[in-house]
Design a protein that fits this description.
Layout (H helix, E strand, L loop, with lengths): L1 H16 L7 E6 L7 E2 L2 H14 L10 E8 L2 E10 L1 H12 L6 E2 L1 H9 L8 H9 L1
Helix pairs in contact: 2-4
Length: about 130
């Protein structure tokens, strides 16, 4: 009888002591190779990268797809995993949008047009200037 009571007390104490939440969070960045691109001139390169910088965080920027996996067992949260693409995907998509003739060479005209049509991210100097003029 005493042994059963001792086992019951140990079992209840263990259940209370070891009850909790086990959690792990993991973010994986899956990136692709950066596409080779040539620029007609240093101005074309500067305009392209100015547009790329301007688009970061803006409503018109290219979204990175994310995959989230969460596994729950009863009350215990076992694992959270998030997979997101890296910066090369953004770069490649911006090159595809900018290079209108698809020759893997960005001309000054393409870069200037892309820069002129790139929405500015909130907090970017171009966005602040647009707010002040309106």
């Amino acid at each position: 009888m005493k042994t059963h009571r001792l086992i019951l007390i140990l079992a209840l104490t263990s259940a209370v002591a070891f009850t909790g939440c086990i959690s792990s969070n993991k973010t994986e960045y899956v990136d692709e190779e950066r596409n080779a691109v040539a620029f007609e001139s240093p101005k074309a390169e500067a305009d392209f990268f100015a547009a790329l910088n301007r688009r970061k965080g803006s409503p018109g920027r290219i979204e990175r797809p994310e995959e989230r996996t969460t596994l729950f067992l009863v009350v215990v949260n076992v694992s959270r995993r998030k997979i997101t693409s890296g910066p090369n995907r953004d770069f490649n998509q911006n090159v595809r949008l900018c290079d209108t003739d698809k020759d893997n060479r960005i001309s000054e005209k393409e870069a200037q047009s892309y820069l002129d049509n790139s929405p500015a991210a909130p907090g970017h100097p171009a966005a602040d200037a647009a707010i002040k003029t309106n």
